Amino acid sequence: MSKIAYVNGQYLSHSLAKVHIEDRGYQFADGVYEVIAIHEGKFLGEKGHLNRLAHSLEALRIDWPMDKRPLSMVMREVRRRNRVRNGLLYLQITRGVAPRDHAFPNPSVSTLVITVTKRPAIDKAELLAGIEIITTPDLRWKRRDIKSISLLPNVLAKQAAIEAGAQEAWQVDEKGFVTEGSATNAWIVTKSGELITRDAGEEILNGITRLAILEAVQDQDIKLLYRPFSVTEARDAREAFISSSNSHVRAVTKIDGKAIGNGLAGELTRRLLDIYMEFMEGEGGPQQEARWN
């Protein structure tokens, strides 16, 4: 069975799915995207993803290609046609096709592309096995709260990690504070047991998995602090982990070659993964309205 993609109102074989060469996503990276995890046939954090999509579209003044409700129906149909029970859905909206000019075309017709990819079911042992990360300067633009398809700095950061034998890169601002990973949010646990995450704002993308973790721990006996943390503090932390729709809650055991804690997934990281999994199984994602900036 061939993969099926959705492009501007049509369900097409993946090999035949195309957009015009003057689509502004191709010409200018003038578009936004979302990646939604599929777990046992359910979209995790769908409400949060669509709300964040609305934030990104509004910030860039790109029109919705359709309302949220029919968009959700198309997402489900793409998943169904591809028979994906566990995997990822990729959704991209651009400002559409127009002769190349920096100014917005008037009128414009948004381009919508949706694809899905199969992934193995969530493996807690793999998530707790731990990954190594490196740190690298943050080269991105100043509106990181917008999930823009302009990802070249993220690509360079990820490639630097791979070439260093690591799996992810934490990007560092001009003050020496960690912002986030190339495709993940960054967390540490201090030696006194405090869970630290940078506050939501224009400096980071407010991850849907991040929001799910924050909501899931509200009733837990966990001291949570919203503040930046430095590379030095991260290397000296008791625990560290990343979160995303693809990584869920994944332990970090080395930063820039230095073992974190005892070099294994920490106690709170393990607990948070259990809490997150239970929360996602029950709720399917964060239910509260997020503050995007």
Can you walk through the features of this model?
By secondary structure, this protein is α+β, with helices and mostly antiparallel strands. It folds into 2 domains: about 5-120, D-amino Acid Aminotransferase, Chain A, domain 1 (2-Layer Sandwich); about 125-285, D-amino Acid Aminotransferase, Chain A, domain 2. Helices cover about 30% and strands about 25% of the residues. It has 8 helices and 15 strands. The strands form 2 sheets. Strands 7, 8, 9, 10, 11, 12, 13, 14 and 15 form a 9-stranded mixed beta sheet that branches. Strands 2-1-6-5-3-4 form a 6-stranded antiparallel beta sheet. The longest helix has 17 residues, at about 265-285. The radius of gyration is 19 Å and the shape is globular.
In short:
The protein has 293 residues and is of the alpha+beta class. It has eight helices and 15 strands.
